[in-house]
Write a structure and sequence with these properties.
37% strand, mainly beta, four-stranded antiparallel sheet, globular, 0% helix
Protein backbone atom coordinates (compact mmCIF):
# COMPACT_ATOMS: atom_id res chain seq x y z
CA UNK A 1 0.00 0.00 0.00
CA UNK A 2 1.41 3.38 -0.97
CA UNK A 3 -0.84 5.51 1.21
CA UNK A 4 -4.09 4.79 -0.60
CA UNK A 5 -7.01 7.07 0.24
CA UNK A 6 -10.42 7.64 -1.33
CA UNK A 7 -12.08 10.53 -3.11
CA UNK A 8 -15.86 10.96 -3.15
CA UNK A 9 -18.50 12.49 -5.41
CA UNK A 10 -21.72 13.13 -3.48
CA UNK A 11 -25.02 14.25 -4.97
CA UNK A 12 -24.60 16.42 -8.01
CA UNK A 13 -25.91 18.97 -10.43
CA UNK A 14 -29.19 17.18 -11.11
CA UNK A 15 -31.95 17.84 -8.60
CA UNK A 16 -32.68 14.10 -8.55
CA UNK A 17 -29.13 13.05 -7.65
CA UNK A 18 -28.75 10.66 -4.71
CA UNK A 19 -25.53 9.07 -5.98
CA UNK A 20 -22.47 8.64 -3.83
CA UNK A 21 -19.38 7.48 -5.68
CA UNK A 22 -15.89 6.73 -4.42
CA UNK A 23 -12.57 5.91 -6.02
CA UNK A 24 -9.21 4.97 -4.55
CA UNK A 25 -6.55 7.62 -4.87
CA UNK A 26 -2.86 6.68 -4.73
CA UNK A 27 0.43 8.05 -5.96
CA UNK A 28 -0.33 6.10 -9.16
CA UNK A 29 -3.55 8.04 -9.78
CA UNK A 30 -7.28 7.52 -9.40
CA UNK A 31 -8.65 4.00 -9.50
CA UNK A 32 -12.08 2.88 -10.75
CA UNK A 33 -15.18 4.61 -9.40
CA UNK A 34 -17.72 2.58 -7.44
CA UNK A 35 -21.22 3.42 -6.30
CA UNK A 36 -21.80 3.21 -2.55
CA UNK A 37 -24.65 4.01 -0.12
CA UNK A 38 -26.87 6.67 -1.74
CA UNK A 39 -28.06 9.80 0.00
CA UNK A 40 -31.46 9.46 1.73
CA UNK A 41 -32.80 12.33 -0.42
CA UNK A 42 -31.77 13.98 -3.67
CA UNK A 43 -29.48 16.97 -3.16
CA UNK A 44 -27.53 19.34 -5.32
CA UNK A 45 -25.22 22.25 -4.38
CA UNK A 46 -24.43 20.71 -0.97
CA UNK A 47 -20.88 20.77 0.37
CA UNK A 48 -18.93 17.94 1.96
CA UNK A 49 -16.03 17.56 4.37
CA UNK A 50 -14.16 14.53 5.71
CA UNK A 51 -12.57 13.94 9.10
CA UNK A 52 -11.68 11.02 11.36
CA UNK A 53 -13.34 8.43 9.13
CA UNK A 54 -16.62 10.31 8.60
CA UNK A 55 -18.06 12.18 5.63
CA UNK A 56 -20.26 15.20 6.39
CA UNK A 57 -22.69 16.71 3.88
CA UNK A 58 -24.01 20.19 4.65
CA UNK A 59 -26.95 22.12 3.20
CA UNK A 60 -27.76 22.09 -0.50
CA UNK A 61 -30.89 22.26 -2.58
CA UNK A 62 -33.57 19.57 -2.71
CA UNK A 63 -35.54 18.31 -5.71
CA UNK A 64 -38.14 21.06 -5.16
CA UNK A 65 -35.36 23.70 -5.57
CA UNK A 66 -35.53 24.70 -1.91
CA UNK A 67 -32.44 25.39 0.16
CA UNK A 68 -32.08 22.94 3.06
CA UNK A 69 -30.51 23.18 6.52
CA UNK A 70 -30.02 19.43 6.72
CA UNK A 71 -26.64 17.99 7.71
CA UNK A 72 -25.77 14.31 7.18
CA UNK A 73 -22.87 12.13 8.24
CA UNK A 74 -21.75 8.66 7.18
CA UNK A 75 -18.84 6.55 8.33
CA UNK A 76 -16.42 5.74 5.53
CA UNK A 77 -14.59 2.43 5.22
CA UNK A 78 -11.06 1.95 3.90
CA UNK A 79 -12.47 0.43 0.69
CA UNK A 80 -14.39 3.65 -0.09
CA UNK A 81 -17.84 2.40 0.86
CA UNK A 82 -19.91 4.43 3.30
CA UNK A 83 -22.39 3.33 5.94
CA UNK A 84 -25.96 4.60 6.04
CA UNK A 85 -26.30 8.38 6.14
CA UNK A 86 -27.41 9.80 9.51
CA UNK A 87 -29.25 13.09 9.99
CA UNK A 88 -27.27 15.44 12.24
CA UNK A 89 -28.08 18.74 13.96
CA UNK A 90 -29.39 21.02 11.17
CA UNK A 91 -27.83 24.36 10.33
CA UNK A 92 -29.60 27.37 11.90
CA UNK A 93 -30.65 28.45 8.36
CA UNK A 94 -31.07 26.71 5.03
CA UNK A 95 -28.07 27.26 2.71
CA UNK A 96 -26.85 26.03 -0.63
CA UNK A 97 -23.24 26.37 -1.85
CA UNK A 98 -21.86 26.88 1.68
CA UNK A 99 -18.14 26.60 2.36
CA UNK A 100 -17.40 23.72 4.78
CA UNK A 101 -14.24 22.57 6.55
CA UNK A 102 -13.23 20.74 9.69
CA UNK A 103 -10.46 21.76 12.08
CA UNK A 104 -9.80 19.34 14.91
CA UNK A 105 -13.16 18.47 16.45
CA UNK A 106 -15.14 21.39 15.00
CA UNK A 107 -16.94 21.79 11.69
CA UNK A 108 -17.17 25.28 10.17
CA UNK A 109 -19.60 26.68 7.60
CA UNK A 110 -18.88 30.00 5.90
CA UNK A 111 -21.26 31.83 3.57
CA UNK A 112 -23.60 30.18 1.13
CA UNK A 113 -26.85 31.22 -0.51
CA UNK A 114 -30.05 31.42 1.53
CA UNK A 115 -33.57 30.50 0.42
CA UNK A 116 -34.15 34.06 -0.83
CA UNK A 117 -31.20 33.64 -3.22
CA UNK A 118 -28.90 36.04 -1.36
CA UNK A 119 -25.28 35.25 -0.59
CA UNK A 120 -24.47 35.50 3.13
CA UNK A 121 -21.34 36.06 5.21
CA UNK A 122 -22.28 34.27 8.41
CA UNK A 123 -19.85 31.81 9.99
CA UNK A 124 -21.20 28.84 11.93
CA UNK A 125 -19.33 26.23 13.93
CA UNK A 126 -20.33 23.07 15.76
CA UNK A 127 -18.45 20.45 17.76
CA UNK A 128 -18.05 16.92 16.41
CA UNK A 129 -17.97 13.96 18.80
CA UNK A 130 -17.68 10.40 17.44
CA UNK A 131 -19.13 11.45 14.08
CA UNK A 132 -22.05 13.37 15.62
CA UNK A 133 -22.47 17.12 15.17
CA UNK A 134 -23.52 19.15 18.21
CA UNK A 135 -25.28 22.50 18.39
CA UNK A 136 -24.32 25.16 15.85
CA UNK A 137 -23.15 28.57 17.05
CA UNK A 138 -21.90 31.78 15.50
CA UNK A 139 -18.42 32.48 16.90
CA UNK A 140 -18.03 36.05 18.26
CA UNK A 141 -16.66 38.50 15.68
CA UNK A 142 -16.56 35.77 13.05
CA UNK A 143 -18.58 37.34 10.24
CA UNK A 144 -16.75 36.85 6.95
CA UNK A 145 -15.64 40.26 5.59
CA UNK A 146 -17.93 39.97 2.52
CA UNK A 147 -20.95 37.96 1.48
CA UNK A 148 -19.73 34.82 -0.25
CA UNK A 149 -20.87 31.52 -1.67
CA UNK A 150 -19.25 28.65 -3.57
CA UNK A 151 -16.11 29.14 -1.51
CA UNK A 152 -13.63 26.30 -1.12
CA UNK A 153 -12.52 25.95 2.50
CA UNK A 154 -9.49 23.95 3.49
CA UNK A 155 -7.71 23.36 6.77
CA UNK A 156 -3.98 23.94 6.63
CA UNK A 157 -1.91 23.47 9.80
CA UNK A 158 -4.85 24.50 11.99
CA UNK A 159 -5.80 27.49 9.84
CA UNK A 160 -9.06 27.78 7.95
CA UNK A 161 -8.29 29.04 4.43
CA UNK A 162 -11.02 30.38 2.10
CA UNK A 163 -10.18 30.04 -1.58
CA UNK A 164 -12.04 31.83 -4.37
CA UNK A 165 -15.83 32.01 -4.08
CA UNK A 166 -18.57 34.16 -5.58
CA UNK A 167 -20.88 36.87 -4.38
CA UNK A 168 -21.21 40.65 -4.48
CA UNK A 169 -18.12 42.29 -3.06
CA UNK A 170 -15.87 39.24 -3.23
CA UNK A 171 -12.33 40.53 -3.19
Amino acid sequence: DDGAANIYSIGGGAASSVFVLSAPFTSNGIGPWQQTTPLPVALTTATAAFSAGFLYLVGGMNAAANAVATVYSAQAAADGTVAAWTVQTPLPVALWYPGVAIIGTNIYVIGGINQAGASVRTVYSAPITNGNIGAWSTPPAAQFPVVIDSVALVQVAGWLVAISGEGPGVF
